[in-house]
């Protein structure tokens, strides 16, 4: 496991921390620095309202958290994905996606993930460490610099890691992104694979952000296999927590469903899913699984994706198919990192901590019959 860095980075500091750090200077310096960091989103060295000496001192004492290892551009510039190196040796991914009406940044909350979902490159590569507030917030700032005049309006915590397992840092980041970066709570989405204590904390938190639950299976037998944390927090309890969230926040919960060929794309799966989600008036996001090199499991073919979506709709479920972004640049969570580590291992001859080097890859087998198709 990588060690947490001891030196804070520039976005780790709250406004109060910055005021304390600049004690003895005119109060407007705090405003200038804060405006440069959040409103303008530029590097400290480029905050032209600050004296040059102060800029270089700040840059040395409070460095940026993210060093770019790779940048991949796809979908004619509409998808940009980064692999960042963190201090201490861990690596994370961030994705910027431009749509007709908005630009969204998908950010990581942990380096790696301990949840070990069987179809996920990040989960199979294991857990390195939690991210700090600065490491989370800086992902958005760096993405916005690249977005230029396309306004970043939506943030989703759907990158590497389980946000609820790093709740305090995630929540402080949410407050910073809402209060200082100006993202409305309705455009902030926290995803979870079903950590109930986190969902309950979120329900008590002051901002009505969106909750997205990575469900992927609608019965405990299949979900235990796909999402091991289900053994601790089974579907019945998870749905109870979702109902509580909906009642407290008045925000519709959404459910993510990675469609895997012959595993969770049968008619029976659609019927079970509809039964669970209909009472919540929940939205279901169908995500054809991105192809991941080295994994036997395949995404559902496009024609079947459409049939599955149509069946859900006919059952009264509000379902949409999410367009896969950047399949040519390893845009599924953890793929860029896994491929980078594998490439490095191939060069150095080391086995490394690759997604498929520790023997834990669980390629979920389709049931022997594809009944009710
Ligand atoms: S799907 Fe999400 S929760 Fe599961 S292992 Fe991957 S990153 Fe972790």
Describe this structure in words.
This protein has 373 residues and is α/β, with parallel strands linked by helices. It has 2 domains: 10-63, DNA polymerase, domain 1; 65-348, Alpha-Beta Barrel (TIM Barrel), CATH 3.20.20. It is 35% helix and 18% strand. The chain has helices spanning 15-21, 28-39, 52-61, 121-125, 133-147, 167-179, 196-204, 220-226, 235-249, 267-277, 302-314, 335-348, and strands spanning 67-74, 79-85, 91-98, 103-106, 110-112, 127-130, 152-157, 188-192, 210-214, 254-259, 283-288, 318-321. The chain has a 10-stranded mixed beta sheet, covered by helices on one side. A two-stranded antiparallel sheet has the order 5-6. The longest helix has 15 residues, at 133-147. The relative contact order is 0.12.
Core attributes:
single chain, 373 residues, TIM Barrel, 2 domains, 10-stranded mixed beta sheet, 35% helix, disordered C terminus, binds iron/sulfur cluster
